[in-house]
Write the structure tokens for this entry.
Amino acid sequence: MTQYQFRDRADHALGSGGSSGSLVQVLSDQNPRTPQQSNNLDIVGLGKRYTSQQASDGVLQVLENINLNVQAGQFVSIVGASGCGKSTLLRLVLGLDSEYEGQILIGGQPISGTGRDRGIVFQDHRLFPWLTVAQNVGVALRNSPFNAAQKRDLIAEHIALVGLEGFEQSYPHQISGGMAQRVAIARGLVNRPSMLLLDEPLGALDALTRSRLQVELQRIWEKEKITMLLVTHDVDEAVFLGDRVVVMEPHPGRIKRTVEIDLPRERNRSDPDFIRLRDDVLSDFLDIDVNQIDTQALNPSSLPRSFADLRMSW
Ligand SMILES: Nc1ncnc2c1ncn2[C@@H]1O[C@H](COP(=O)(O)OP(=O)(O)OP(=O)(O)O)[C@@H](O)[C@H]1O
């Protein structure tokens, strides 16, 4: 589907005579999501400490010397054991917390708080139950410079982008969990950010909905050409979506290894190269060599296929 067809569908979905495709075109031209070098993310020597009773000395070093460069338009997956600081890392990149060591630079400039250039999607959709789908998406535009007509077009465009035309006036209790998460993705994108931060966004969904939304997420990423940073517990998902998978280790949270996923998209989960890369990430993650496991000694019916179906849940 072309951009223009998307826009046509968006206009149709709103059912408003005043919603013009040309206005959406103007908005897109003014603020395209074309990757630009100026939107590269550079994390340099990042450290984060919390005052916490978890630590004997009262100070918990959650992140230590994180160095990560993400080119504009890349899809980077981040995996690691529970508590290794993945969500903390996203919170810092989002700009929710300004107390850290090191630097977080976007386009070479230190970030300063939150900004419309970064959107976020959480595991729980966090929709307001008393607002409709369209209003929930529009919440993110509250402090934006767009006028009412522009906001209406942006909302329609992004509801169409996530495939929810016809549900604009539905309330969260009237849609499924997968649809609610689509609304959250639309809300994360409606300001036309250059970067979308995804904190285990599909973690609460059933397996079928989850794999469908993985494909959707990839389609959206390819269409919007923005940077995506995905935190996930699911190694399969990380390899399916990422240009790179960053494996973190805990206590304190550090980058253990980065694995390049140089496979054509859409990736085939039963392709031997996919399985090899997934097993590679997984063994690194678990600190084991999957080839050394004596699978004969285990009940084959209870085993995933060469870790192919394994979902990590920490
Ligand atoms: N505001 C806070 N004050 C004190 N400690 C915190 C705070 N936020 C997080 N932590 C601690 O920091 C560590 C990292 O938390 P974080 O949520 O970033 O990990 P995570 O890797 O995302 O975990 P999970 O995979 O379980 O979501 C944990 O030990 C957590 O208890």
